[in-house]
Design a protein that fits this description.
Oligomer: single chain
Number of helices: 12
């Protein structure tokens, strides 16, 4: 049996998306096949000026043989693939160099950047993978840290405190004139979106005096719901009907209302999901998984929706494990009611559900 998994995100570019890799590999415990489908929710605008500023000063001061000691930051922080894309756009933009620059673009990229050796901290495996491709091509002396070992901002902040303090080892000097002197910790540059949680900078800045790390935040992109999302999600749901199971995985609060309206789950008057007396509560075959607790809590508070799965680990592995654990429980419940497991010749028998089914067959 093939189960559609609609992922409300943009598929990774330049390599197979990790969700495709994990969803199409051998099942963990069920004899089913997953069909991942990507529906982008967001549109992005990049702001590369803060990156220009940081690297232009470094380039002008160091020339071709750039010295890491002259770079104003001790490392860079990335919490999304969009930040990586903005970073890549900035360091490879021809307008950054200028027609009269004696180094030229190729010399800048191949000879100046290759001498920079700072840590590149990344949340989650997808961001780390995208960032590492940029590192290999343009920043070979840097290292990418985090990834699968830091699937949340909280986890990455802890990793940064441990790694950066171990490798730099000096407390911050409070006197402004001495703050970035040789032998003392430089600030980290946090490349982020216009809307973001502040858990990383707050954690790093509020550590003990010996552990504290300054963070400068640079807004390098902004996101908004795609103008085509309502049309795209409706078409995707129609093209991939739910026979026994269909999953929708949400990665951010953005697009929640549009999705619920497309499913027919949202009451027009209250802007909440339909109440318990609504007939759409019976026979639901579309299920919702959340990448993490922030998105889960938002849709519950805003729309009254209890997601079926909240990934314990915000990663492809975490989502898949949660989905399979949920379906295994549903199968056991179905067997107790019908006497046999779903996916057998007679088809799937859905036990009663506590959330709406799909409206109008969607």
């Amino acid at each position: 049996m093939t189960i559609p998994v609609i992922l409300l995100k943009t598929a990774s570019s330049g390599h197979t998306d990790p969700y495709t890799t994990h969803l199409t590999s051998n099942p963990l415990s069920l004899d089913v096949t997953y069909h991942p489908i990507y529906v982008p929710v967001l549109e992005h605008s990049f702001f590369t000026e803060p990156i220009f500023t940081a690297f232009e000063a470094f380039r002008k001061e160091t020339g071709i043989n750039g010295a890491t000691s002259k770079f104003p930051y001790g490392g860079l922080i990335f919490t999304s693939q969009r930040a990586v894309e903005a970073f890549a756009a900035a360091i490879t933009d021809i307008s950054f160099i200028g027609e009269s620059d004696p180094l030229g673009k190729e010399s800048w990229i191949l000879q100046c950047l290759e001498h920079l050796a700072v840590p590149l901290y990344a949340v989650g495996p997808a961001t780390a993978l995208s960032l590492d491709k940029i590192r290999v091509k343009y920043l070979p002396a840097c290292r990418v840290l985090g990834g699968e070992d830091a699937g949340t901002g909280e986890m990455l902040a802890g990793l940064i405190l441990e790694d950066y303090n171990a490798s730099r080892g000096q407390p911050i000097i409070e006197t402004a004139s001495e703050k970035h002197s040789s032998g003392h910790k430089k600030p980290l540059l946090f490349l982020t979106g216009a809307k973001h949680r502040d858990i990383i900078p707050v954690t790093l800045r509020s550590a003990s005096m010996e552990q504290r790390i300054d963070v400068e935040e640079a807004i390098v992109y902004a996101s908004a719901e795609s103008q085509s999302f309502s049309t795209d999600i409706a078409a995707t749901l129609k093209a991939n009907p739910a026979a026994s199971f269909r999953w929708v995985v949400i990665f951010s609060p953005t697009g929640g209302e549009t999705l619920l309206r497309a499913l027919g789950w949202l009451d027009d008057e209250s802007a909440k999901i339909h109440g318990p007396d609504d007939p759409c509560w019976v026979g639901r075959t579309t299920f919702v998984a959340s990448i993490g607790p922030t998105t889960r809590d938002y849709v519950k508070k805003k729309f009254g929706l209890e997601v079926d799965v909240c990934a314990e680990k915000p990663s492809p592995e975490g989502v898949r494990q949660g989905v399979e654990d949920f379906m295994q429980k549903q199968m056991e419940a179905s067997k107790q009611i019908t006497g046999y497991y779903p996916f057998e010749e007679d088809g799937y028998h859905q036990p009663e559900s506590t959330l709406p089914r799909d409206n109008n067959g969607i």
